[in-house]
Amino acid sequence: MIAKDMAQMKSLAIKLFEINAFKFGDFKMKVGINSPVYFDLRVIVSFPEVMQTVSDLLVSYIKEQQLTAKHVCGVPYTALPLATLVSVQQNTPMLVRRKEAKNYGTKKIIEGIFNAGDTCLIVEDVVTSGSSILDTVNDLTREGIVVTDAVVVVDREQGGAANIAKHSVRMHSLFTLSFLLNTLLEAGKIERDTVDAVAKYIAACQINSDGTFANDKPQVVNDFVRTRMPYESRANLAKCELAKQLFLLMSTKKTNLCLAADLTKCEEILDVAEKCGPYICVLKTHIDIVEDFSQDLIRQLQNLAKKHNFLIMEDRKFADIANTVSHQYRDGIYRISEWADLVTAHSLSGRSILVGLKAGVTTADSKNRGVFLLGEMSAPGNLIDDKYKETTSKIATEGSFVDFVAGVVCQSKECFSFPGLIQLTPGVKIDETSDKLGQQYNTPEHVIKDKGGDIGVVGRGILQAKCIETAAALYRDRLWAAYIDRVAK
Ligand code: 5BU
User: Fold this and answer.
1) Same domain, 109 and 176
2) Which pTM value belongs to this model?
3) 198 and 264 part of one domain
4) pLDDT at 100 over 80
5) What does each C-alpha distance from 90 to 114, 122, 140, 239 come to in angstroms?
6) How many whole angstroms from 265 Cα to the centroid of ligand 1?
7) Overall number of domains in the chain
8) Does 2 score more than 70 pLDDT?
9) N or C: which end of the chain has fewer CB within 10 A?
10) Which residues contact 228 (CB under 8 A, 6 or more apart)?
11) pLDDT tens-digit map of 131-155
12) Is the model's pLDDT at 399 over the cut of 90?
């Protein structure tokens, strides 16, 4: 690679990480063992400037490696737009391989004009075992087309190159997984631990082209299962500044207790904030139930937050169209975006909710604000279903708002897997299973160890106790001990 391209490659690597085209976590793979790293290059179609850079680099790489062929053909589907760009930029005719032959009309599996004996270069996005490339090669070969080379954006280094070499096809990769990891490490985007954990997995999980493991079933533990990771390691993976900050706050202050200060008088709220401040990581408000609200409450709360080192979350549960949400967040008597480090929001209106919230923060504050999306509720009979949960997790981890979403409010560890997000779980009480209106409670241990909560939200369990400091200390101790136990296993 020439130096100019190398600089471009490094900045592309960082960009791909920032747009979550690859991410670290605990991901289900075809081969059966979960991977700590996952590539999803499908997202790049939403970032035209990234598409442009990838195709420029591919074209320059093809030239440098002298991979001349009469046609180019992308492996369906993710590589199709990339192959199109390469074809147009180089003026090389393209072939399109269908995944299934049509059952009407021409019934062709390879579209485009070609003759038997023509050469064709394969374009692919990500290679694990190489089996997808081989499927495309087989279909082309059946038509008499000659394939000797494949150019790929990312080689996961799990044996793909060797597998396709057995079929006389050479693989040329723009990026290897190691290059990407080292670039991110150099740029301070990830920690050495992350590089080591991925390297351990890759070394143990070499794959044959039929999808079986090269070694006998490898015994690897994925170090990125979020419920097994300590908060300080998860801080390294967080994309949202506020999530990073909160993970580190929990880890140094040794508390994962959020107090729900559901009180209607300023004086009462300030009193519990002063008394419970030393034991909590977050103080959660429902500011619209305060009868004597004034901005003085906010000033005093902020002083207490500084004094006792906790964050303030307004549990506003925004749910409207972007324009309305931006006003609800910024304007009115509460001016929430000026003071709440964190807010909660329904994902009901999709990404619009984040568009609206982003529009409601001043640029100066935008790095210091985060959102918790509602993935599940503790209310009985609520209407959230699996599809809703899955989409909420997607909104939280994909697209241009990953730096704004700090976590998910939910009731189960299955709701999302990305370790850089925080699970906030309400409905915590030591000695009751429900209230008169149907709130469903669980013990601190059940919430942290079984349900995967990172932060337990306690309201009445503390507020109705005889001595709120003692109750706050008890909930802090039990929630924290459950977390320590969880990560020790
Ligand atoms: P409690 O007193 O511990 O029941 O208070 C729980 C708090 O968490 C309260 O402020 C609710 O508004 C909030 N909450 C909840 O209980 N369940 C949910 O699913 C969500 C929020 Br989301």
Assistant:
1) yes
2) 0.82
3) no
4) no
5) 17, 14, 21, 37
6) 18
7) 2
8) no
9) C
10) 486, 487, 489
11) 999 999 999 999 999 999 999 999 9
12) no
